[in-house]
Structure formats: C-alpha cells, structure tokens
C-alpha cells in the first residue's frame, strides 16, 4: 500500500483509474474498499483473527491451569495475581520493545505480549467462578460420594461458566484492540493498513480497516455470548 501521494499532494491513490469518490477523497469510498478487499483487507482481517484466537487460546489454557492451582492452593492466589497484574499494566509498546531483543520482529513477539495482557482477566474470571460455587452444593456432591476431581468437572466448572465467559469476552475485545498495535512489530493484521493509512491523507483505508477491527470485536463478543448461553441451558430454563 505504498501508492499514496505524500501529504499536500493530490489525494488520489495510485491505482489507475479511480472513481470520483476517491478523487475527491470522500469519507468512505465503497468501490475502492471492495476493490482492495481481496488483496488488502481480507488477508489483514484473517491475520487479525488468527492473532486474536491464538492469544486467547494460549492465555486461557495458562490462566485456567493457574486458577485451578490457586483454587486448590489458596496461598498461590496472591503471587499469581500480582504477576499477572504487573504484566497487564505494562504499556503494549513498552512490552513489545522489551521482547524484541529476545524474540525479534516476529509474530512470536506479538503473541507473547497479547497472551500477557489476557492472563489477569482470565485468571480472575476462572478463579472467581470457582470460588463462587455455593459451599452447600459442594457438600451435597461430597455426600453423594464424589471426589475432588469429580466435583471440579461436574459441579464447579459448569457453575463457573458464566464467569469464565464474561472474562473471555473482555479479554477477546481487549486483544482485538491491542493486536492493531502489533503493526509496529510485524506487518500483519488490521493494524498494518491502519498504520500505513496514518501517513496518508486518504480516508477510506483508515476508516475501512478501523471499522473491520470494531466489527470483529463485536462479532467475537457475540459468538462468545452465544457460546455461554449454549453451555448454560439451565440459566434460560430458570429465567
């Protein structure tokens, strides 16, 4: 996407014949967006989805195991929580800079950073869901002869699903937004056309890529909401 004239020159992308909308640099030119979809916006969107899903999946596995461990060994809650909080409070660009000397300008650098930002949210969500299970329910399960593992799988985890889904929704939307900054490290995701559009006075590329990021966040949030309802049918029956 290097065919833009520098600021101050005629604002017409160098893509051959252009429409009047592009020539006038209107707010959004649907024809130009559609023409660039196969080569620019669709690959960027797919890369963004991959970065987000990979980070959430890895972050959830780590957070889930840490939360279950902290639930069993309560003294681990504070050190794990503090570590996750410290990683969360680091500015994204600062964390990228810290990682680049170790892992280079690679997707691995981006994924490590994105995973770090999900840990505190997902850890707290899982732990909160587990600790929120009523004690009398667990006593009843023990009275039925269930061991700790069975109680966790059959009682505690199902009842913790609403809290876990809430954490996943927050972490996913956050990851979608932070992943746009990853363009400073790798030429990938929706952040790439956004970053390139910042140096150009042409509106459509910036607005198109930004709108896709927003729509992606809404879409993933909606999918997780539907997943939560599907996994907790008893809440609908109760209401």
UniProtKB/TrEMBL annotation:
Pfam families: BPD_transp_1. It is a multi-pass membrane protein. Keywords: Membrane, Transmembrane, Transmembrane helix, Transport. The chain crosses the membrane at residues 49-71, 78-100, 112-134, 155-186, 206-228. Residues 45-228 form the ABC transmembrane type-1 domain. Gene3D superfamilies: MetI-like. PROSITE patterns: ABC_TM1. CDD domains: TM_PBP2. One of its GO terms (cellular component) is plasma membrane. Signal peptide: none annotated. This is ABC transporter permease. The lineage of its organism: Bacteria, Bacillati, Actinomycetota, Actinomycetes, Micrococcales.
């Amino acid at each position: 996407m290097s065919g833009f004239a520098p600021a101050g020159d005629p604002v017409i992308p160098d893509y051959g014949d252009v429409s009047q909308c592009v020539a006038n640099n209107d707010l959004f030119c649907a024809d130009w967006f559609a023409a660039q979809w196969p080569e620019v916006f669709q690959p960027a969107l797919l890369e963004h989805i991959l970065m987000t899903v990979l980070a959430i999946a890895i972050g959830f596995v780590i957070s889930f195991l840490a939360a279950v461990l902290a639930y069993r060994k309560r003294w681990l809650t504070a050190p794990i929580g503090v570590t996750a909080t410290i990683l969360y409070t680091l500015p994204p660009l600062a964390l990228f800079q810290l990682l680049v000397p170790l892992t280079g300008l690679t997707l691995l650098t981006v994924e490590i950073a994105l995973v770090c930002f999900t840990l505190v949210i997902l850890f707290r969500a899982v732990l909160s869901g587990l600790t929120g299970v009523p004690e009398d329910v667990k006593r009843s399960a023990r009275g039925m002869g269930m061991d700790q593992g069975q109680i966790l799988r059959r009682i505690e985890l199902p009842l913790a699903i609403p809290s876990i889904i809430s954490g996943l929704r927050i972490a996913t939307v956050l990851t979608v937004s932070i992943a746009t900054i990853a363009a400073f490290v790798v030429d990938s995701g929706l952040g790439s056309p956004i970053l390139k559009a910042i140096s150009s006075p042409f509106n459509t590329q910036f607005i198109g890529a930004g709108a896709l990021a927003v729509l992606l966040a809404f879409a993933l949030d909606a999918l997780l909401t539907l997943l939560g309802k599907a996994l907790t049918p008893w809440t609908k029956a109760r209401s």
